[in-house]
Amino acid sequence: MREDNLIATIFAPLAGEPGVRFDDDCAHVPAAYLAKGAVVTMDTLVAGVHFFADDAPDLVAKKALRVNLSDLAAKAARPLGYLLSLALPKNHDAAWVRQFAAGLAGDQAEYDFALWGGDTVATPGPLTVTITAIGEPAVPGGLLRSGARIGDVIFVTGTIGDGALGLKVVTKTRFRDTLEAQDVSMLADRYHLPRPRLGFLEPIVDHITAAMDVSDGLALDLSRLARASGCAARLKAATVPLSPAGRRAVDSDPSLLNIVLSGGDDYEILFTAPPSAASAIVAHGSATGCSATAIGTMDDGEGLHIVDAEGRPITLENAGYQHL
Amino acid sequence: MREDNLIATIFAPLAGEPGVRFDDDCAHVPAAYLAKGAVVTMDTLVAGVHFFADDAPDLVAKKALRVNLSDLAAKAARPLGYLLSLALPKNHDAAWVRQFAAGLAGDQAEYDFALWGGDTVATPGPLTVTITAIGEPAVPGGLLRSGARIGDVIFVTGTIGDGALGLKVVTKTRFRDTLEAQDVSMLADRYHLPRPRLGFLEPIVDHITAAMDVSDGLALDLSRLARASGCAARLKAATVPLSPAGRRAVDSDPSLLNIVLSGGDDYEILFTAPPSAASAIVAHGSATGCSATAIGTMDDGEGLHIVDAEGRPITLENAGYQHL
Hints:
By secondary structure, chain A is an alpha+beta fold. The first copy, chain A, is built from nine helices and 13 strands. Chain A has two domains: 3-137, CATH 3.30.1330.10; 153-307, PurM-like C-terminal domain (Phosphoribosyl-aminoimidazole Synthetase, Chain A, domain 2, Alpha-Beta Complex), CATH 3.90.650. In chain A, helix 2 packs parallel to helix 3.
């Protein structure tokens, strides 16, 4: 299948935004879409590194989109459009590409945004997907990871560790015997399909001093937030929210806490706010069905300090996922 | 070298746009930058496919940027910023990345735009560079390839075929014996380093009915413009502008005309305008030092029809570069 056909028959129908004039190699985005400025982000997924070559194509598409949407969510930005680069091995087949496009279409409908352009190329290497997502910020200038202040409370949305535990399920290195089938299924699903927390921050954005998404492990990402903000972060490990399946996994093997805190693939929002806003933030979480849990405080000093329920330091075996 | 270090030490200094708040995984672009809307484009280059693995890293960086800038130029858009995805083989070294970044820095200064963000990942495959460039359009809604009308004159900027002939030079399959050293050098340079025609269209934009850049070969790209516009294109091969080196190459071997017309890597602008504007357009080319040459007309019907100096049909051996 040649590029013109691929674009025309499979990807062009995804470029459905009526106000955006799609022209194969460029998209024209009207000023009205960008009246509040833009938040832009880009993430690349490589087969065999960030997903498995035999993963379902629609799930690969959704993961590639959602890791970007998670970045937008953590900046209180609403997705507007995206560009897609697809580097395909020579032996790709059209059925794979069609299923991939079906995954894109599903998430475009789910999250109300559209394809704005991109590129398709051949590669002698593994299938590689790069997405650039463009969003509309809720506040001018948006949120940064660098605004946390000493004394701020550290929050995360949802639950931590499910994606990393799910990877152990998917690779069959853990849990097939020790967890119930429904826990295994839930964790694997959380690994395959991030749930970007779009819309969560907007109603509470005035309280928030710093925010980023958790993608490379809570420990590493929190240490980045602390460094960018010029403070230390004190993380209370016992307060980190776990799903019921994650809780049962850690209860069955306490050493898994290391994977929970450093494993990555969470795609939750990590953010800070002053203590005066804490109860409003927790109430917002309860009201929306996406919990916000206080997991520590920003302190004077530098670095990440993890403590257990008795306040004793915990040292992780590794510091999180580094891409290189 | 780990990702945090790579970003901090090599790429962060490239994110120098003072108005854009750079936050590693997202950039916040103020509304003032986007008051005219935006033109967005994305291109991927794969080592061994779009460049040679042993090409100079700074030239790889510049080529990756310039193929995108060429898309913006063909839409009368001024570059504002870009996002970079770099997928690096495991054995990459920091010296390569530093030279690559130096190439980016050079072109940022040359074209006055800045890095807005991106991603760096490891790949078991070849080095792969994806760039998303964002530009400010000179006219609301921008230019499309689909606006050509029957009777319009077809123009190209600069000269055609140098990049494709340069590839033959670089791969040593031609010319080492038959062309002078300075011609060999000029053609190789044109292959390695596109010259995006930024700013060319803006003063004449009111005349232009359709525009796109020539990247996959004049014949294929003109056939795309014709199809998008719902007309036929009649290309007079003898009027296609050649550089002195390109002219000498074709004179020495007339069969090379096929490569000139279908080889790709031109990064010139292909555009159409009504005959009444033709003399103003040619005069604009002369005044700016970047020629605009009439190479044919849009006709009733469909498809691309190439004719020689006597009006006889010419059939190409292949239709241009297809990415897949």
